[in-house]
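## retry 2 of 3
previous attempt timed out at serialization; input unchanged, resubmitting
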Amino acid sequence: MYELGVVYRNIQRTEAGVADGLARYGSATVHEAMGRVGLMQPYMRPIYAGAQVSGTAVTVLLHPGDNWMMHVVAEQIRPGDIVVAAISAACTDGYFGDLLATSFMARGARALVIDAGVRDVKTLTEMGFPVWSKCISAKGTIKATLGSVNIPVVCAGALVHPGDVIVADDDGVVCVPRAMAAATLDAAAKREANEGAKREKLASGVLGLDMYSMREPLAKAGLKYID
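## retry succeeded, writing output
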């Protein structure tokens, strides 16, 4: 059960250098480096292509068709945060647009991740404020029901605690728990270096069949070449 009607003001955020450093590796590499966990559902898509961010999570629980708590969470944003919005029951309404984005940006938010709808996409794109959402919808919302801010939430299938790191790009959104963030950054750096060496081999004409020593297991599995 979610805790309702509360705002936690003092949360422990992942150290800024670690949170910021994860952005360069992107969601796919971070997901792999962390052991293939923490990835949000693939329906979470960016409203425009090319954005690649990371930041510390400030969470908000909303209710269907009600964005009241989005105005409450704005006060808790610090520079470098990413707002993660979960919904207590499935909804596709447009909870967020250019006015809220203006408020979020003034507080230093880097992005919004919301398991619901967003609107004013053209203006948000012009503003350069990235959003990853379940859908785009012009349908508005009301302001009537209390949710909560900075509690653990499940957003698009991923458990997110306040202060965790969110990494998001064109491939998706991944949540890195605060306790795993530093180790994940190290693992992502090593994975990226390893992939760079592989990329050079592939570019030189070496086949994956040979680089990954696949020929023998393929033969054992019964693969036959016919001329």
